Amino acid sequence: MPRFGIKTQITLLCLGLLSIIPLIGLNYWDDIRKTTLTAQARIQEIEAKAIATTLLATQQNIRELLAANEDSELQKHALSAPSIKQPIRLDGLFGDWPLLTNAPPRFNLDHPVWLAVPDMPSETAFSLRLAQSSQHLYAAIDVRDNNVVLRKPSHLRLDYNDHIQLTYHDESGALRRVILPAEQEGALASYYTDMHWQYGRDINSASPNYKNTQNIASHKTDIQGYWHKTTEGYAVEFRLPISQLDTVQSQIHFAIVDIDDNPAYGPQAIVASLPKSLEDKLNPVALHARELQRVIDQLKSTYARLWIYDSRGREWAFAERDPQAEVAPTAFDSQCVKDALKGKVKPLHHMNDTDGKLNRLLVCYPIIEHGETLGVVVIDESASHVLEQEEARVRVITIKVGSAISLLLLVLLTYAFTLVRRISRLSEESSKSIDLHGRIERTTINASRNFPDEIGDLSRNITILLEKQRSYMNFLERIPQTLRHEISNPLNKLRTSLENLLDHQPYLANDNYIRKIDAGIDQISRITLHLTEAASLENAIKEEQLIKIDLITFLNDYLAVWDEHIDRTPWDKSPAFILGDSSRLEQLFDKLLDNAISFCTKTGKVLVHVERHTDRIVVIIENDGPTLPSESATGLFSPMVSTRSSGSSIHLGLGLHIAKLISDQHKALLIGKNREDSSGVIFSIEFSLIQMS
Amino acid sequence: MTYKITIVEDDIDQQQNYADALQRRGFETQCFSRVEEALIGITNDRPDLVLLDVVLGDDPDGGFTICRKLLDRGDNIPIIFLSDRSDEIDQVFGLRLGAWDYQTKPISLALLAERIKSLLRIHHARSEDNKTAPHYEGSGISLDEEKSFASWHAQTLPLTLTEFRLLSSIVKSGPEGINYSSLCESTMQRMVTNGTINSHIKNIRKKFNALDHTFQCIRNKPGFGYRWEKD
To answer: Which residues is A253 bridged to in the sheet?
Structure first.
């Protein structure tokens, strides 16, 4: 099973938690969308209602603004000035004007104001387009005139040439007359003038009729425009600041004065934007009312679009958040507005796109005074914008929460890793406190010892445990010695008593029971001797110094004594030097060979062979016979552990323990294992060779 | 001549067994089981040899105490420790106090008697202060069997009786060597293993090396025993 460390587990856990958060967020996003759109619609509704109420409460002339009480005949000639987003380039070319649903109104001799020869047909006509931005009223006039008479530079008078008469109410409600003479291709000249339409007048004059003012030679209006000669006549494109117009009674009038031949004879024809019957009137034009505009301008950053329509559909105010956006969808024709104008207070309309997906939230709230619906406040919002905003908010929240969680996880991760490192150190130090054979080398664990937490408790508890264990181990280690001490005296009593008995009664020497007693005492004596040997060996070998020994020579000499019990495979006779103690090596091989011979089957063999390597030499002792139980090496070489039974011989389990102690003294690797075919056991001792220089 | 042997042993049975065995072999014995009574008894009736157990009653080092006091007052009495304490440190401590030998239980009474006789003979030889010719001499080693004296290049080797016997056996075996079994016999102990022999040889080597750090004449014959190889 692959090992999963705590660090890996914690890391995976954190990654899991981090991945769950977005999944939960995604699950909630649909709910958030619905809630957001519902809330937005509700807010729009409240806002529209608030605007309507505010208008009624604060705009004293709201009725005047919105009430549809104008002359119905004049209303027929009302001019439309749709809102535009982009400024129009004033170049006399009308290509950049927004496409109109209907053709621009055209004025010709159907509305003659003046004809020099009343019954003579005249080609004079003009078409007029108006548009309004938040700042300007734009006008585009395309005049048909076969004979364009330009103003001569020497003429002070402005009416000796083709010209356009423009009339409107200024911001103070005063009537303004502006004459736009045909001068030359290029910048449009414009002059304030008086009711005679002859000379330019100074607008700063106190008198609206400019009677006392001087004629002026250059135009002083704020009209910017362009005069352009066309194949059929000429075209004029200009703009007028809306701030200079009366937006309460927003009216404007255009008249084209066609001068042919001798100007002194007067105009050939005058074509106006109103018929002769209404020549004292101005065309109504639906300019945005400043008072209403101010109200909704304050909200234009909040909503995509806001309109205030009167009951006739005139757009009195319009504001939008993003003037750069595409053409604003109109709202007046919507069912929402129609319902509102009927006084139905069911303002919310969801407008879906062709895919059926909600794309607009349209709220229309009627402006009702004394039971009469004066107009309607329309608030339009893009669903995608609302959701984008919400997404942005959610994204910010998510980033903040995610960052906070990540930071928290990072802190927790760091802390967890610190704990893991402390646990690892504790584990490492704990492992090092016990050697390969399970002996306690030290009892004090320093890792986390001074920490006042659970790991510190664990460290201190391990120290206490090790101290107790060492005490117990000391007790166990002293057992053989103590046992020998305790046995020695009674054994000596038995031995000396038996000897005295046999001295007194020598005939008992042949007694079977006496012999058995003697043999038993000898056996116990050997046991105590072995116990002593094992107990004292560990201390004895600590002080012994190893010297350079030729292991090959040693083995050849040593094994000669064992030749009748073992088989040897020939090996290289060249010296192999190790650091060792010959008497201890003798003891080591005595134990292993004794072991091998005692466990070898009667017909089996004990085989000794040597494997030589560049830097090490391995002595292998094999014997046929019973196999080792599948125990760990620690168990195999532990004292007082006998893994196999071999009849009547003494097996205290000290032989392999002593062999292991001596192999450790020689820094040799002693391994015991079963043959692969389970026919016997193999013990190998691997010594490091001394490199002879 | 009848030699008087003092036996100091807190176990009455063992004490009696030692006494019976020695008396049967012609020794006169006096027995004590406590430190104070032993010191008084030895003072009043000076023995020729003292057998001391180390642990006497509640006193774990009672035998050592008696040994030290006897030798401190100049009594040149051969002392043999008979103890169940078989640790090397105990043996070394006892021998350094001035004991002639240290035997660990269980012991053989017959061998003990032989050892006592041998020690008394050696003690007698040494106390006569007559110079005797060494029984063996050559290549720096000199052995006086009678006094159990060994010297290396005229420097005395402070060997115990057992160590002297082992060294003597090895030196006499020469390059051919002597096997473990013969060496065991020469210790005059009943239960001796190869490990015990090896331990004694290590001690002998240490004593040689204290005089001559280049000493390497005692050579191991792996699996067989030891041999003496001249420089």
So the answer is: A167
